[in-house]
Amino acid sequence: MGNKVFYGIIGLIVVLFVGVFIFMNNQSSDPESLSESGYYPYTDKEPDELTGPTIDLLDNENYQSNKTPAEVEEIVNSGEAEFVYFWSPTCVHCQEATPMLTDALDNIDKEVTQLNVLEYENAWADWNINSTPTLVYFEDGKEVERLEGNPGSAEGFEQFMTAAAGE
């Protein structure tokens, strides 16, 4: 009788561990469960395809304008004037520059489309990106101006954006 109770308890523990594993696995495959806000712009990727640094920044307010490469292509080819910010969550220069860019955008009432080159490695070649961060201004589907690197201040971003847009 003692062995049956022992094996029953072991069996119950195994079933609980399997249940917890299945529950956790299902949670991680739900894109909205990766962030507290439910923000998930990587609509062409499954959650388990994202890198940890990207997942860590899903709730960061400075990275809430991310698009897929197809969406960026569509935006640029629409002919509308658009700034596109190429960045990587593992780039220390991006981590320093992005809050400044966000401040600049607030100050001059502009918007930017972001493309995470860590998740979309083809973007390096497709958009001729040499380093991150890179901010590119497009108009009529063509590149007009490019800023590579961290300008060091929100004012540096503001000056670039107003000059590029001809303001």
Automatic annotation (TrEMBL):
Top-level taxon of origin: Bacteria
Residue ranges of every copy of the Thioredoxin domain listed in the record: 40-166
This protein's UniProt keywords: Disulfide bond, Membrane, Redox-active center, Transmembrane, Transmembrane helix
Segment forming the signal sequence: none
GO MF annotations in UniProt: protein-disulfide reductase activity
One cellular component (GO) term of this entry: cytosol
CDD domains: TRX_family (cd02947)
Bilayer-spanning residue ranges: 6-24
BP GO annotations: cell redox homeostasis
Family: Belongs to the thioredoxin family.
The name this protein goes by in its record: Thioredoxin 2
